[in-house]
Amino acid sequence: MWAVWRKKKAMQVADGVAKASSDVDQAEVLAFQNLSGALRDAMAPRLEELPPFETMWAGVERLCAEEARPSEVRASPPVWAGLGEWLRRLLFERPTLVLAPAGALVLALVLALFVAFRPGSPNNRCYVDSYDAGSGTVLIEQDMDDPAQPTVIWYLPEG
Amino acid sequence: MRKIALALVLMNLLAPAAFGAEDPKVSLAITVIEARKGPPFLHEALKPLWELLQKSFGEKFGYYDLVTSAKQTVLSEGRVEVSLPDGERFAAIYGGLTPEKKLIRVSLEYGDFRTKVRIHDGGTFFQAGKRYREGTLVIAIKAAIQRQP
């Protein structure tokens, strides 16, 4: 407790806030003065490097003036420019994300065309006008409701 | 002079009937198939007929092998023939087109069996029933009008 009070007193003396007294170690006061001097030396050049306040204020005024302009005057990039860039990046960086759906789309189109223009099945409807068999049985098997269904003329000879 | 004029008029009237009404050539194809129950089999040459065979015979047969085939382009009354395995001749005869619907008239002849049918251009029908080995002979007949290029 006493040691802390002495150090605090020594710091105050070193800073010139308190007067030196017999209970303050002069060596400690000297050490604090040296430390303060070293810190000031280290900080001084940086403070000098800071830009002047006028320059900073001119910049703030310029930004405020730009903000005050009407929005349509400010040049904004067109929407499609961003879209194009996005597409380009997608195509070159993740081609499967573009090529896989594109391939599926092309395949679907080809299938749709194939189905749409596929030649229809021939009409296999057959009209049996007459038949004659000396012996045996003749059967006509056909479905007149289905034109694609071929007729079968069964001839089962005797024996 | 009158006779000449009359002859010209008659020629004009009869010429289309004599020349223009000629039936076109028809391609007749006969395919003789051995069909029977058994392990599923389809001869390579019968692939175009596979759908029709299934439609017509369904579960009756599973094994289809090619026995013989013939294809020919014929004029009216022309015939296409094949020899069946027992030596009998199977003939398909083109009988011209029907005047209205342009159906193809086809007659079949083999042994004592005769039949006459009309089918659409490109149509196929089957004649079946003759026993062969452990199965049946199925004969596919396809007729198609040959159009001039």
Account of the protein in words:
The complex is a heterodimer of chains A (159) and B (149). Chain A is built from 5 helices and 3 strands. By secondary structure, chain B is of the alpha+beta class. Chain B is built from 2 helices and 9 strands; from the N terminus they run H-E-E-H-E-E-E-E-E-E-E. In chain B, the strands form 2 sheets. Chain B has a 5-stranded mixed beta sheet, with no helix packed on it. Chain B is elongated, with a radius of gyration of 20 Å. About 4% of the residues of chain B have low confidence. The chains are: A mainly alpha (159), B alpha+beta (149). The interface between A and B is medium-sized, with 28 and 27 residues. Strand 1 of chain A pairs antiparallel with strand 7 of chain B.
What percentage of the residues of chain A does DSSP assign to strands (E)? Answer: 5-15%
Mean pLDDT of chain A: 82
Tell me which protein chains meet in the greatest interface and how many residues each side has.
A-B, 28 and 27 residues
Beginning-to-end CA distance, first to last residue of chain B: 42 Å
User: Would you count the extended β strands of chain A for me?
Assistant: 3
Query: How much helicity do the residues of chain A have?
Result: 55-70%
Secondary structure elements and pairings:
The complex is a heterodimer of chains A (159) and B (149).
Chain A: H1 2-15, H2 26-49, H3 53-68, H4 79-93, H5 95-116, E1 126-133, E2 137-141, E3 152-156
Antiparallel strand pairs in A: 2-3
Helix pairs in contact in A: 1-2, 4-5
Chain B: H1 2-20, E1 26-36, E2 41-42, H2 50-57, E3 63-74, E4 79-83, E5 89-97, E6 104-110, E7 113-119, E8 124-132, E9 135-145
Parallel strand pairs in B: 2-3
Antiparallel strand pairs in B: 1-3, 1-9, 4-5, 5-6, 6-7, 8-9
